Structure formats: C-alpha cells, structure tokens
C-alpha cells in the first residue's frame, strides 16, 4: 500500500492510540523518524492519567454488568452515544441496527478507522464478583466490554487534542461480531467509504500483560457453519428392522466428515471440520424420526473453504442415503457463505512493529502464531488495508492459557 508521509504518520499514530488502552492519535509537527519515535513514549504517559483510567474502568464495568447479544446492544449503544455527546463528538446512529460511528478530527482526509465490537455471549457468568452480569444467561466472556471502553477512552483523548489532528479518525462501534456478521453489515452500509486503513484489537491472555502480538499475512482462519437434519423413520428399539435409523446415519456422517481433512486436504493447508452438536431422541428405547447435527468448518484459504462447504454437503447427503435416510443442510450463508480469513496488511504490520517497539520495547512485541479462530474484522480487510493485533492480559506467570479461556464463564 503506497502512502503519503502524512498518511503514514497518521497510521502510525492511530496504532499508538490502540496499543495500551487509549493512546492519542496525533500528527507530529516533525516528519522525521526520530520525531515519530518519541510520540509513543509521550502519550503512553499521557494515557496513564488516573482519572482517565478510572473513567474507562467504570464504563467497562457498566457494560459488563449489562451484557447484550448481537443486534440487541441497545443499552450499550445508548451508553456509547451518551459519552460521545458529553465529549462533543458527532456520530451516526443507528448503523446496522445498533452500531455507532463517530468522527474526530478535521472531517477531511486522510480517514483512518478504529473498530470495537460491542456484543456479549449467551453464557451464564459463574464467577461471583461485584460487577458480574446482571442478565441471566448472558455475559461478556470475550472482552468486548473492554474493547468498547478502550475506544471511548481513545475518543476522549482524541477530542482533547482534535485541533492537532491532521485528518479524521472514524470510531466504529460494531454490533454482532459473535457470528452475526456485524462487520459485513456495516461495510454494506458504507461505514468505510473514503477510509484508507482500519485497526482492530482483541484482548487475550496468551502472554504477559504489557505485551502485544500480531503477524503479517494470514492471522485467523475463515469459517463457516452448517446445520443438518437427517430424517429416517422412528420406531421401537426392539424391532429396528421396521425403522430407518437416523442416529446410525448421523454417526456415519460424523466419521466421514473427518476424512475431509485427514485424506482430502493438503497437510500444509490447515483446515478443521468439527461437529459440535448432535441432537436426537428422547427415550432410551425409541428410535427417533430425525437427528440434527451441526458444526463448523475452517481454513486459511477461501478456495479451501469453498471446497469444504461443497464436500460437507456431498458427504452428509451421501452418507444419509447409504442408510436410507434423507438430509437437509443449512449453511446459514446469507448474506455471505462464510467469514473470510483475517489477513493483515504487510505495510500496516511494519507500522505496528515500529510503533509498538518504540512504545513498549521490542521485547514486548511478540510474533503471533496463526489461529484457527475467526473474526468478522476480516470483512473490513477485504475492502481496505487493515491490521488486527492482540493486547495481552495474562496476569500471573503461572496462569495457563487453557485456564478461563474466552467464551467460558
């Protein structure tokens, strides 16, 4: 991606903003590399103000106590808009049902976006603490409450210094990241029109607090989901010859689906097919009329995702037919067949390394291994250059990455 010096500087400074909670995005009066290298240190200290940190923590706790699922984030959105109103930051609302898009700066190019997702998960919070979820069956188990508070903190600092900005920062508060494809919906509504680059982060606890991680190129896999109903004919378990057993057919389907990766995929092209749902029957002595199975498929290449999707359908229908059953399959592929892979822009990754190294020290910047998880941030990256990175939050040296992982209570 070719950039002007002004755009290059703004990109570097937007990255500073997103690296340790909110850090200011400025255009330096100096265009030298030395001038740029001093900015991270200056604004790292600036962002550590106690009143700012306390304000952000308070917002995060409010959101954590009141989690909302995808496209239901009305109260979260209301809180965001209230804080933007107090800061005097203009915004568009509603965008994609509950989304909010704010603007800080000159209102002129270059435009650079920062994204925070807002939605919670349908999980019961089991940890008993003062600010636990007040909504039964829902909790922020993936850090989106922290993402929103960080972006509001960034907005606050930006507004305090907006006269020094040489461009416009677009604040993207996005709904429905957890499977709802909120990024695609916002993209279709023109959120990134005229935007030249986008940044996103995710909190994680793979590495010690105070470190960050990312990589150039493929970072996260693309993914799709499937749900299949295998229908036979129910009957008594004592006389199976008078039934057509969908449980047997579904069992064969599950075993056969594993062959798609082990025997059809290139071992160097990472792919995963997982069946995570199997529902059928309600009594120990009755063969049911139908069984429902569901799962996910993942790969780093779009061509591999298309191949997996086609073969999953063939295998399910074929194995069902072998056992005299019928199968219907729903890939939930509207408006898109799957989430694309997350691919970080090479030039923006270089900015990440330079700015993060200046700010935290090179020993605090880690190379991130590709993961088979997926993120709808990838939709933005298909449209414009973007980078996603992790903000590490591991509190103890003895804390295993397997303990209290994301999406658990």
UniProtKB/TrEMBL annotation:
Positions of Mn(2+) binding: 142, 144, 178, 202
PANTHER family found in the cross-reference section: IAA-AMINO ACID HYDROLASE ILR1-LIKE 4, PEPTIDASE M20 FAMILY MEMBER
Instruction: Cite the cofactor comment.
Output: The Mn(2+) ion enhances activity.
The entry assigns this protein to a family as follows: Belongs to the peptidase M20 family.
InterPro entries noted in UniProt: Amidohydrolase (IPR017439), Bact_exopeptidase_dim_dom (IPR036264), ILR1-like_Hyd (IPR044757), Peptidase_M20 (IPR002933), Peptidase_M20_dimer (IPR011650)
Q: In what residue span(s) does the Peptidase M20 dimerisation domain sit?
A: 226-319
Offer a single GO CC term for the protein: endoplasmic reticulum
| One Gene Ontology biological process | auxin metabolic process
Q: What is this protein called?
A: IAA-amino acid hydrolase ILR1-like 1
Which co-factor is required? Mn(2+)
Q: Which UniProt keywords apply?
A: Hydrolase, Manganese, Metal-binding, Signal
Source organism, top-level taxon? Eukaryota
């Amino acid at each position: 991606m070719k950039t002007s010096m002004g755009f290059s500087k703004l990109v570097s400074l937007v990255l500073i903003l997103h690296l340790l909670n909110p850090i200011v995005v400025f255009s330096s009066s100096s265009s030298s590399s030395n001038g740029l290298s001093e900015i991270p240190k200056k604004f790292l200290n600036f962002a550590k103000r106690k009143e700012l940190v306390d304000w952000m923590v308070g917002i995060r706790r409010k959101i954590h106590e009141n989690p909302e699922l995808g496209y239901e984030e009305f109260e979260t959105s209301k809180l965001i808009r209230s804080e933007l109103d107090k800061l005097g930051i203009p915004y568009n609302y509603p965008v994609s049902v509950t989304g909010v898009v704010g603007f800080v700066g000159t209102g002129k190019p270059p435009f650079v976006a920062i994204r925070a997702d807002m939605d919670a998960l349908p999980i019961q919070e089991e940890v008993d603490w003062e600010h636990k979820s007040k909504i039964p069956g829902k909790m922020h188990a993936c850090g989106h409450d922290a993402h929103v508070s960080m972006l509001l903190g960034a907005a606050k600092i930006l507004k305090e210094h907006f006269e020094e900005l040489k461009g416009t920062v677009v604040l993207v508060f996005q709904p429905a990241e957890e499977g709802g494809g909120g990024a695609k919906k916002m993209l279709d509504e023109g959120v990134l029109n005229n935007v030249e680059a986008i940044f996103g982060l995710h909190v994680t606890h793979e590495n010690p607090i105070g470190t960050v991680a990312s990589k150039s190129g493929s970072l996260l896999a693309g993914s799709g989901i499937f749900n299949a109903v295998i229908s036979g004919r129910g009957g008594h378990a004592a006389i199976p010859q008078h039934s057509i057993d969908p449980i047997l057919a579904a069992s064969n389907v599950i075993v056969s689906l594993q062959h798609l990766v082990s025997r059809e995929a290139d071992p160097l092209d990472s792919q995963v097919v997982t069946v995570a749902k199997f529902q059928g029957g309600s009594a120990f002595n009755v063969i049911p009329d139908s069984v429902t199975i569901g799962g996910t498929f993942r790969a780093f290449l779009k061509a591999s995702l298309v191949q997996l999707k086609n073969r999953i359908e063939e295998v399910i229908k074929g194995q069902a037919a072998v056992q005299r059953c019928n199968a219907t399959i729903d890939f939930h592929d509207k408006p898109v067949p799957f989430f694309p892979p997350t691919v970080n822009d090479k030039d923006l990754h270089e900015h990440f390394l330079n700015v993060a190294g200046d700010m935290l020290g090179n020993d605090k910047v880690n190379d991130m291994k590709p993961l088979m998880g997926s993120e709808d941030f990838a939709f933005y990256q298909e449209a414009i250059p973007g980078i996603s990175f992790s903000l590490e939050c591991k509190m103890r040296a003895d804390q295993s990455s397997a303990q209290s992982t994301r999406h658990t209570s």
